[in-house]
Design a protein that fits this description.
Layout lengths: L1 H68 L3 H11 L6 H13 L6 H31 L13 H13 L3 H4 L7 H10 L4 H25 L6 H37 L5
Helix pairs in contact: 1-2, 1-9, 2-4, 3-4, 3-8, 3-9, 4-7, 4-8, 5-7
Length: 266
């Protein structure tokens, strides 16, 4: 009897140990399954990037054509698109407008005033759109794509610049060729006040537009002032308005899916 009882106890212990092992194994399988699904989603997103970039390129080409051949309100829409991150060049458009002014291609003073008003409004509102996107990056619906941005080294540097310039940040960013977009984003993200930013942008735009129009006068005899200006600002715009935001966006997506696939989140 004692031997039978001892065998039963041994068998029972072995059964409980195997059950625990199977439970641990199932938990590990669940975790690996979740991380695998997150990895597949991330891979799908990365594969979709070339298609998305191709669509953006086609839209950019269409928008540029419409602005260069259409009525003045297309200048305004072109500049608003730049505020949403579409890779079109404010500098190239305003320089091109300056070249047209130098060649007297607008028919009347009213048309000249309309063109300048549309361009000026588009420039300032473009800055404000980018600014409010920056606000949403840390305190709105876009914050989930940038979970660690507020504590990153980039955010710390941007905050120091905002504190350095204070209420002048809206005006100062106008003079940073190729980096206006990132500075507007950072100003919104780190908490610059909207009204001083707007007033600064509106004041700075008067100066930068005057410089851009003057450059247009200098380029009036070139075959295409728009392409000439685009060539002048291509490198800083590529770095500041395309590569920089693209790296930040990809980093946010990767961090998001890594966080989802980590054991702590499961």
């Amino acid at each position: 009897r004692n031997l039978r009882n001892l065998r039963r106890r041994t068998i029972g212990r072995q059964g409980s140990i195997s059950n625990r092992g199977s439970i641990c194994g199932s938990n590990n399988n669940r975790r690996s399954g979740r991380s695998g699904r997150s990895g597949k989603r991330l891979e799908t997103k990365v594969k979709a990037l070339p298609v998305a970039l191709g669509s953006i390129q086609n839209f950019t080409a269409w928008l540029s054509t419409q602005a260069l051949t259409g009525p003045p309100h297309m200048y305004f829409l072109y500049l608003l698109a730049a505020g949403f991150g579409i890779p079109v060049s404010e500098d190239a458009l305003v320089v091109w407008v300056g070249a047209k002014l130098a060649l007297n291609q607008f028919q009347s003073f009213t048309q000249v005033a309309t063109v300048l008003a549309m361009v000026y409004a588009g420039v300032v509102l473009s800055d404000m759109i980018t600014y409010f996107i920056g606000v949403l990056m840390t305190r709105g619906i876009l914050s989930k794509f940038f979970p660690n941005w507020a504590t990153s080294a980039t955010a710390s540097k941007a905050k120091r610049q905002v504190e350095r310039w204070g209420s002048r940040i809206g005006m100062m960013q106008r003079f940073f060729l190729g980096f206006r977009g990132p500075l507007c984003l950072c100003a919104g993200a780190v908490g610059a006040k909207p009204l001083p930013f707007f007033l600064g942008s509106a004041t700075g735009a008067l100066f930068t537009m005057s410089i851009q129009i003057f450059v247009g006068h200098l380029l009036k005899n070139t075959p295409n002032a728009y392409l000439a200006a685009l060539g002048l600002v291509a490198v800083p715009n590529l770095i500041g308005n395309i590569l920089g935001p693209m790296v930040v966006t990809l980093s946010g997506i990767i961090l998001k899916y890594k966080k989802k696939g980590s054991p702590a989140s499961s």
